[in-house]
């Protein structure tokens, strides 16, 4: 479902990170260096996508959000890509992306509730509570999520 938009400069991130990782003391340090480099590049691509959206270049924004997600998956890139797809008239794909986010949220909420009911501490619980508070009063379902999200990236 998620389109791949490979770019040579994105691959260079892995090369640079691997070089830094070669200087790392442990494999955990190396993994952390690679993850930091990928996250930094993904963040830069995401910010560029926001700028492209602000300028009305929805196709470029979509591609930048896709590239950001490929480097460092995050729900915000999925929503932003879905928003751009709506703006580009690719509503069917956008609905699938919105549904994927809603489904993932429901699974995370269910897991957090199970964890809380068993007496365990959950770092996800406060975030889920904040998200649920923000969503109170909104109709449920992918169509409602899509309608609420179309207004911006």
Order of helices and strands: HHHHHHH
Taking all residues together, what is the mean pLDDT? 74
What best-fitting shape do the alpha-carbon axes yield?
A: flat
Distance between the termini: 19 Å
Largest sheet: none
Query: How many strands?
Result: 0
Q: Catalogue the unreliable spans.
A: 124-153
The class by helix and strand makeup works out as mainly alpha
Radius of gyration: 18 Å
Helical segment tally? 7
Tell me the helix content.
Answer: over 70%
Strand content: under 5%
Please describe what this structure looks like.
With 153 residues, this protein is mainly α. The protein contains 7 helices and no strands. It is flat. The two termini are 19 Å apart.
Protein traits:
single chain, 153 residues, mainly alpha, 7 helices, 76% helix
Give a short synopsis of this structure.
With 153 residues, this protein is mainly alpha-helical. It has seven helices and no strands. Helix 2 runs antiparallel to helix 3 and helix 4 packs antiparallel against helix 5.
Helices and strands in order:
Elements: H1 8-22, H2 27-54, H3 58-71, H4 75-87, H5 91-117, H6 124-135, H7 142-149
